[in-house]
Amino acid sequence: MYQVVHNIGMDNIFGSYLREKREALKKKNRKFSLRQVAIRIGIEPSYLSKIERGWPAPLSEEKIKALAEDLGENPDLLLALSGKVSSEIQAIIRKRPQLFTELIRQLGEMPDHAILRLVREVRDGDW
Amino acid sequence: MIELKDNALYFSFPDVHSKAKLSISFKKTLRIPDDGKDYPLPPGLGDFPLEHVDDYAPILPEKWQERGGVMLPMYQSEAMWINFHSSHLYDHGAKYPFAVKIAAGKINAVTGESWSNGLSRNPQDYMVVPDQPWLDGYCVEKGTIRQFVAMPLGEGYSPEEQINKSAETGGLQIEVYPMKRKAFEKRWPVKPFTQAVFISQGEILYCSSPDMALGLGGRMRQEIYEDEFEMSEWDLNTCSRCFVHLTDSKSWQAVTGKNPPSLPLTARDYSDHGLPWFEYYSDSKPLPGAKILGKLKSITEMGKSKSIDPLPENDSADPDKIITIHRKSTPDQVREWRGRG
After folding, report:
1. Which of A119, A120, A125 has its CB closest to that of B66?
2. What's the complex ipTM?
3. A120 contacts chain B (CB < 8 A)
4. Where does the pLDDT of residue B257 fall: very low under 50, low under 70, confident under 90, or very high at 90 and above?
């Protein structure tokens, strides 16, 4: 039950975020009408309308990425809002699952500025 | 702390000053002819790609893993110059100063002495950035350098092999010290916003060893400047250092699976097309140059003693289009030619 409620919540966020961004773009350029965007990414306008209204309609990773590109949005952000993790990120985690899941758990509570300081340093050795 | 981003090394010293940042990149360039003439500065033709040694550790020589650092690919007889860029602190109206020590095969490029950690003033064994915007080779005499040109390590061309009679190290070694924050803020106090100056001042897949060393190429007009600050102004307790391995281009491809950049055109072709060369002008006092480096044989001279011709296409060039870059030039004046390279 929790899972269903949770999913509806995610779809709502995803849908309303999409609608807000698309409508903002449409004010400047008519090519961002619901119909034209849907046609460009290869789905029915009525389907995109349902998604924007928060219906739990599934959209593939490929379509979400196409939508992100069309609207100038970050694909990882749109995927996360739709409750998905990109296959590229999944592959990184699958390579070293224990290390990365542990790392993500630990990073979960860290403030943004502290996470941004985590960088890979060039290692100095013995010479 | 050193990061590798966009084919450049980013040195930062957050414990000294959050904006004390220096980037160092390695530029592809023309090899100037080694014909006894003194040439102006050749252009930058894009950056050499850089990779972490750790990313390819299992298929690299054990010594490379011990040294850590990064690696870049060079063709035999290809030239390079090193570009320095320090962050501009607009509220102070100045770029943050750094002392930068560079060695090739652990032979200091400014003094010709063997590598030692720390800074020395007698003779001065480092450069001061931003005064020194780039380094093209070994400082052989006052106002003249001999260009860094890649030759296989072990064939006797590099200063390391000529001076120490050993081919142990190769590569490039870099050590960076920031100025102390107090010294910086004393020299350049914060300016009110309206007065801030907004213009810049100015499987093992290789059979032989993949190591390249930097030999002495043609002569070029370039001054290495004297440090105008006090030694006490440098933060000698804070330093970052990095070993830059030079790998021959074939091994690079085998190790990384990536194509190395193509060879640049020759100096003669470049000049014949009327493309620009550069001169740098600064009021700063130049260092005298290292006698020991001045006495070494250039790659061509060494080749003659071996009766071989190590540098193909060494035809003299006649640079007639020369652009002067001043110390206080605007930031958009860059030493680059952004055409084919």
Report:
1. A125
2. 0.77
3. yes
4. confident
